[in-house]
Amino acid sequence: MKPSLLVLAAGMGSRYGGLKQMDPMGPNGETVLDYSVFDAIRAGFGKVVFVIREDFAEAFREGVGARFSDRIEVDYAFQKLDDLPAGFSVPEGREKPWGTAHAVRAARHVIDGPFAVVNADDFYGADAYQVIARWFEGLPTDDGKPHYSMVGYPLRNTLSDHGSVNRGICRTGDGNLLADVEEVVDIARGDDGMVRGTRIDGSGTEISDASPVSMNFWGFTREFFTQLEGHFTAFLRKKGSEMKSECYIPTVVDDLIGRDQADCVVLDTTANWFGVTYAEDKPHVVESIAKLVEEGVYPSPLS
């Protein structure tokens, strides 16, 4: 079965100031999403599923999804605040959904095989899609513990010059298997050249800029949805009453690894990652994509 590409596109874009998923970045008006789906099709993916919000569903279908429907199967899932396991309800006053793990969970009814997860507003590069596609092809079956993967990028290549970022900092062991991943927020390079951030518990930490980080490019099998349900339920019991609590994919994977319920290999890639966290990041992304077009990595216009 060909893998599906699950695109997390429900973000509010609050720091960027708009629906950055639809913002032109390529020389002929292409969006970052256009390049992601193009790379996925070239790598052999058979379906793309967009996780979106219902309030911009029509605009997204017409402005984004329709562009791909003649080249790959397209489907949608809605991340809803009240889409919770039985027995849980939304705390009064909460307005935002429950994070990236909650977004992946939204697609549990429309994905029935292996799938990769990416952010809609991140440019991952052609090689990254080829690497994870080869991993899917060689994935063992029926050997017990589920096997997952993550495309890793060095932290230095994922920072923004215009503000702090949140990253999953990874530590690997034998066979490049992920040993653990720690979600660190507000990461930025200081005037002294050192990179620092804040752990989830609120403590500060200094980080090597060579550390591999998760940019939310994951490879999962269908079993992940079952495991995610258990983790998300436990998360809600512990933190569901907090107004801004979020459940992150790296935290779920880290928990599964710690319990020896799955393993996750970190896949090396030669691709460059470009992100648009802030509006000021856009010129760099536009310039970087233009260079790849000039080098012949992508046709222009993209087709």
Distance between the ends:
25 Å
Average pLDDT value? 90
Number of strands: 13
**What's the CATH superfamily, by name?**
Spore Coat Polysaccharide Biosynthesis Protein SpsA, Chain A
The tally of domains stands at 1
Number of helices: 7
Query: Which ranges are low-confidence, i.e. pLDDT below 50, for 5 or more consecutive residues?
Result: 12-18
Order of helices and strands: EHEHEHEEHEEEEEEHHEEH
Structural classification: alpha/beta
Write the CATH architecture name.
Alpha-Beta Complex
Largest pleated sheet: 11 strands, mixed
- Name of the CATH first level: Alpha Beta
Classify the beta-strand content into a percent band: 25-35%
CATH names the topology as Spore Coat Polysaccharide Biosynthesis Protein SpsA, Chain A
Q: Output the radius of gyration.
A: 18 Å
Bulk shape:
globular
Helix proportion: 25-40%
